[in-house]
Amino acid sequence: MASPVVTRFAPSPTGFLHIGGARTALFNWLYARGRGGKFLLRIEDTDRARSTPEATQAILDGMAWLGLDHDGEAVSQFARAERHREVAHQLLAEGHAYKCFSTQDEIETFRDTARSEGRSTLFRSPWREATPDQHPGDSAYVIRIKAPREGVTVIRDVVQGDITIRNDQLDDMVLLRGDGTPVYMLAVAVDDHDMGVTHVIRGDDHLNNAARQMLIYQAMGWPLPTYAHIPLIHGPDGKKLSKRHGALGVEEYHKMGYPAAGMRNYLARLGWSHGDDEFFSDAQAVEWFDITGIGKSPARLDFKKLENLCGQHIAAVDDAALLHELQGFLAVTGQAPLSDAKVTLMERGMYCLKERAKTFPELLDKAEFIITERPIVPEEKAAAQLDDVSRGILSELTPQLQNVTWTRDGIEALATQFAETHGMKFGKLAGPLRAALAGRSATPSVFDMMLVLGRDESIARLTDAARGGA
Fold first, then answer.
1. What single-letter DSSP state applies at residue 18?
2. What residue ranges of the chain have pLDDT lower than 50?
3. Which of 287, 306, 296, 227 is nearest to 22 (CA)?
4. What pLDDT was estimated at residue 303?
5. Can you give the pTM of this predicted structure?
6. Given 75, 220, 225, 232, which residue has the most CB atoms within 10 angstroms?
7. Nearest Cα residue to 466 out of 436, 442, 423, 437
8. Known binding positions for ATP
9. What is each CA distance from 469 to 302, 376, 394, 439, 451, in whole angstroms?
10. Residues at the annotated binding site?
11. Catalytic residue chosen out of the listed positions 38, 146, 239, 243
């Protein structure tokens, strides 16, 4: 029986959660969740100078927004340093590693000489086969692993295929520095083994690391995980993603008002495919995702595709869930939350607000007629619709709305009949109505606004406008 799937996401807390890191986390989450496995989080905080609590929180916040829940507590790599040292000393005791007393100056001299003689600058320590009685007394040393000198190392990668590295290209990697601190490569291998990670899904910038980490696995007699190194994300121009392409951090996308479901959908499609499917639910993503569907070529960020998918998710999601997320967007952007009364109106109007809205700012823009309060001060373009003639028309129409059946058909029939009676097309009436109800010239349908606002509020706004108090 195969062991249960265990994946992990292992970010360094030196800044925000990068969009590429978010996709790596998503792929790991999808793979584990689709197989009833575990998805673990490890914070690789060994770089004490650059690791900050704020960056750790930013990573946790970004994952929470994307809905990527991890199993168990987050693991601190720094807190496990003693275990890493223990493994290094075990390798030393079993003859798989050795103490190297070469100084930095000696290593540089070796490389300079090799360079001048046209030889490989790969450092070959003279201490590899030294016995303890040959060691200098109290001199500082590092512990190095004994890498094989002959043959090849093959990284069997689900995405990249088999990668073969000649062993004479591998150096005797340092495991413990002179001050006794473990190096990153050792920490990652030990943590992945101890956490029971079965599948290492990460960016292909870590591909060369796999060969070095495999040295530790093999020397310890540990089973190797399955490797899947995924291509990085590039900008629309095909170059490595950078600030010039726009937002890099997940937090920025949150603040721009993209819905989390749309972001998950888009990130899943960024380098992975399931036939021709573009739009899909979380449940479908969990069911369909497999690392064999990841392509070898770098994916390109496409904001139009992101917006298109987000628009589809806004249209498809349950109204209450959408409003809950909208409140979260307002909070993260420092805006006041919607009152209970406004939430009720938003729920009533969601059928006409969702249409063609791709982000929360667009949704809020369409909902401005709900959010605004009386007295309404119209924008310049809308104010131009409220001249004396228009106010006179509104004064005449408003009383007739008192007794109409408050349905779309009822209101529309009255407005159409009123326009015909006055020898005008309804379009001529729509402008002043928009200005009076919303203070804007671009709004949802006049009839939708009146239905959502209700009879009393609609009549109050029209009355204000007719009196010139709009």
1. B
2. 470
3. 306
4. 92
5. 0.93
6. 225
7. 436
8. 243
9. 46, 8, 13, 12, 22
10. 243
11. 243
